[in-house]
């Protein structure tokens, strides 16, 4: 019974994150692209992320195809997954609100793009990636399956490590010393404690 509850909570998380993104995606499309670093590698990384965080979980929840790869954790682990998922969704929402029209799902900057250093960005440079790390850990606890549960971690890890450096380079080229100062003041995923 708890397996179904955890799967429904995961589905609710997908629904909420999608609902958060819709208005920001509409707003983003209203401005022209000023810098575009989307290449084949970027597209492949986004596809990999989609497979691990959405397709594999949906296959697990709606079909029996991945049942052969199930594992069992104690019920408390599933509830820990719920807490991590809630934290992921809250951080995801806050990141979007703070970024506003400066948000982009790809390596692009739009005309009028501003450096955001307030809200959650006052403390960490990549709160959306931090939310994704929380999400994939929650996924492994909620969807107790070697493919669907761990698919998020397996697919997000290369995405993160291959995406952050080019993104930060793009920001340095656009904002120069202002972004360099931001890098010294903030942590990548966790606040810097002085």
Describe, in plain words, how this protein is organized in 3D.
The protein is mainly alpha-helical and 194 residues long. The protein has a single domain (2-185), classed as Four Helix Bundle (Hemerythrin (Met), subunit A) (Up-down Bundle), CATH 1.20.120. The chain contains six helices and two strands; from the N terminus they run H-E-H-H-E-H-H-H. It has a two-stranded antiparallel sheet with strand order 1-2. Helix 3 (75-99) packs antiparallel against helix 4. The radius of gyration is 18 Å and the shape is globular.
> Could you name the CATH topology?
Four Helix Bundle (Hemerythrin (Met), subunit A)
Number of structural units classed as domains? 1
Envelope shape: globular
Backbone structural class: mainly alpha
Brief digest:
With 194 residues, the chain is mostly helical. The chain is built from 6 helices and 2 strands.
Task: Describe the protein's topology.
Layout: H1 2-28, E1 33-36, H2 40-62, H3 75-99, E2 108-110, H4 127-142, H5 148-175, H6 177-185
Antiparallel strand pairs: 1-2
Helix pairs in contact: 1-3, 2-5, 3-4, 4-5, 5-6
Based on the model shown, name its key terms.
single chain, 194 residues, mainly alpha, Four Helix Bundle (Hemerythrin (Met), subunit A), globular
